[in-house]
Amino acid sequence: MNLLEQRLDYPFRDAMPGQGETMVVAEGAGSGAAPAVKWIRMALPFALDHINLWLLRDEIDGRPGWTVVDCCISRDESKAQWESVFETQLEGLPILRVVVTHMHPDHIGLAWWLCERWNAPLWISATDYNAARMASQSTTGFGGESAANFFASHGLSDPQAIEKIRGRANYYPGMVPHIPPTFRRLQGGDTLRIGGREWTCISGFGHAPEHMALYCDALKVLISGDMMLPRISTNVSVYDIEPESDPLRLFLESIDKFAHLPEDTLVLPSHGKPFRGLHERIRQLHEHHRDRLAEVVQACEAAPQSAADILPVMFKRELDLHQTTFAMGESVAHLHALWFSGKLRRQRGDDGIYRFSAA
Ligand SMILES: [Zn+2]
Known about the structure:
Helix content: 25-40%
Distance between the termini: 39 Å
Number of helices: 11
Strand order of the largest sheet: 1-2-3-4-5-6-7
Radius of gyration: 21 Å
Strand content: 15-25%
Bound molecules: zinc ion
């Protein structure tokens, strides 16, 4: 546990559900009541090696069952794990609804399969639904020609890396082969009734197009998705599809929307362990990005810097290609936050590369 984590409270300590099992993280009210929220943890074949999914006891049109929040990527291993959850963890009840926090593959990958199998509707923001549909049918935003050109314009010059990014056109569809043909739209401020309790949608920006977190005041539980993680900081990147965006400002504004929730809110994040200490974590994330921004400004005061030049300033460890693409997006995000707020100015060199210097 790192120093910052020590200021958070992990109420379940190191306990976590095993493969294909669940762990109750919020009890229903009254004796004999069904558990309100169960935790599923599924393996991912990345450096970030797991995702948390949630089962919420529900009843829709008089029919008892479960609402699922998030799905895992589409692959046989995840399906097998779901099968074992269906068999042993649903108390003989069906899945009635699939809620997806945002369009990233680990969250939406198997939505098509879950929705088809249970004849259940998909609930998601319209922006993420449409972005996911587009991405699953094309190469936009996650590799391919336009991503390679975008990274090159920000100084990534290693021809091998550029070639690999160009060849990664199937990156998103590989993990998200289909998207359900219809959806039910979630918007910030909407209230969902799940299992007789009200859950409020809190929209968040800067990580995904329109991320939805869910907060239940009766349970004091926040399903935070990727917008509030206890250990790692959420990826905030500029992508080729929206090359002049300012996602870091959007992200920092969005996490402040959680600041009005009670201090003792139990946060259920998509990665890492459930925790309390939401307000502390909001402070930590602001501090983290403030420090990164200060380092970036300092480097740009010494000499004009491209996003690729900034990588060793922001990331002290060795990066593989996958990490480099994430890191490049983050680097551009920090440069853009400073550029949009007037602290840096941008110039494009004869080599086509954007460089940023002190304003
Ligand atoms: Zn995500």
